[in-house]
Amino acid sequence: MTADHPPETRAADAPSAGPDPLPGGAGAAGPGAARSGAVRTAIGLVAVVATAAALLGIGVRARFGGHVAVDEPQYLLTALSIFEDLDLDITDELAERRWAPWAGTEALPVQTEVLADGTQISPHDPLLPILLAVPMGLGGWIAAKAAMALMAGALAALTLWTAVRRFAVPVRLAAGGVLLASASPPLAVYGQQVYPELPAALAAVAALAVLTGPAFAGGARAGGAERPPRIRRDVAVFGLLITALPWLSVKYAPVAAVLALLGLWRLRADRGTLLSLAGGFAAMGAAYLAVHRLVWGGWTVYASGDHFQASGEFGVMGFDPDYAGRAVRLVGLMADRGYGLAAWQPAWLLLLPAVGYGLLPALRRRRSGGPAVPGDAPAGTSRGTSHGASRAVARDAFHSAALLLPLAAGWLTATFVALTMNGHWWPGRQTVVVLPLALLLVLALLRDRPGLRPAGLVLGLAGLVNHAWLLADGYAVRITWVSGFEQVGSPLYRAVRPVLPDYRLGWDGFWPLHLGWVLVSLLLIAYGTPYLTKGRTHEVDPDPGDRDGAGPGRSADVRPDGLRRR
């Protein structure tokens, strides 16, 4: 993802050196030690801040009557059963009211159906309880939430690394963006909420990091040579990460499917690896369905849910869904007064122009009409020049698709598949799985459009203020993470509420503001889009055939870092 007239990159901000090619012309690194040190420092900083921000949220109650609420007790009871009994049956945990010390003395809402063998298995996929079994068994609910906070730190660190090493984002910009996102809602909140959202986001960004790395760089193996062990390992890791997503929750299957298809497409020239990965996906899918039929009695975990015995397991998507009505969530997920991303962290509004800007590589490749296969150079062009240009365009188009397509899958799932966006949870829950990808899109926009960085900083700081106020009011037990949070005293949140639609009011109550936000959203996307065709393009090939020269232009077109402008 590149742009015309890019900002010059100072040495302190440049991406670190490394073996992996970087889109956008970040393949050339000078002295690597200082830059690698800067990246390591930034990774450590964002990991610590993200973990601390999540840990601070543990002190805020999930509801006024308990420290955990809604689905959280189900995950924790299952984790406890795995640790103590090595099974998923929570019958004894329910009978002994093991939830009372941390979920309150009121009876838990009934979620489980007693199965034919007398067991009760929570209607939630088991990977999160498996991950939390040891901390829950040894340290209780606080240790389990602390483990979630450590995952939040890992997510921040990996997102920054991916931004720098895969998308050529300057270190300082990447660190600032990741800090603002990780220390504000919804990532900071779900960094300690016992839900699979944040682990799923970690799996998704890890899969993206592998997908955009050397293992999926494309091209057939020369002379039938075997792939290096590292490449085979990375492909295997990618397969495991994709498999993990539906085991965290079946609702992540669309995101997993899109990432899997992108990986298979990238390997299309390497038939052996392609068939191995496709066979692995088929085997894992069959195992998923077989285990769910055997344990939960259906194709999904919802087959064991008390609420779905009459409607069937697919009633989780709604008993009589109005998909046309759900379409308002396309905007509402961003702009809803209580449950929209922008209400709590206004910097997420930058995602809209970033989406328009992210279309640049795909449209540029289509406009160029150039060959996608190296060596098929048009008549009258240098083979080396054509090779480098077509390779850079194809790479950038794929990297852009690797961000946009899973993001679209997650957003559409939250729009049309999820039962509601206004549930008993913290806002933004259904979008968390793809928010790191959204953040990478925003960072790519800010990388090439430095004029937007002050706006991003101001909006991001507003989100930090909102989160600090939520923590203060939460410690004072004026609000909780599940209920009453819209009564937070943050003056910034109170100021924006009147201009945001409340989709719980019905069409008559929200349509004027909704239509206004539809227009605003389209304008913001269009604001990013003009750069697709405007002005001189900036194509930087990290390994052009005539790298040592000025290329087909003036010597003044050579950048200070030794790369050339085209």
UniProtKB/TrEMBL annotation:
The keyword Metal-binding is assigned to this record: no
Record field: transmembrane:
41-60, 146-164, 170-191, 198-217, 237-262, 274-291, 341-360, 401-421, 427-446, 455-472, 509-527
Keyword hit for Transcription regulation: no
Which superkingdom heads the taxonomic lineage of this protein's source? Bacteria
Positions of region (Disordered): 1-33, 536-566
The record's keywords, sorted A to Z, are: Membrane, Transmembrane, Transmembrane helix
Which regions are flagged for Basic and acidic residues bias? 1-11, 536-549, 556-566
Q: What is this protein identified as? A: Glycosyltransferase RgtA/B/C/D-like domain-containing protein
| Gene source species | Planomonospora venezuelensis
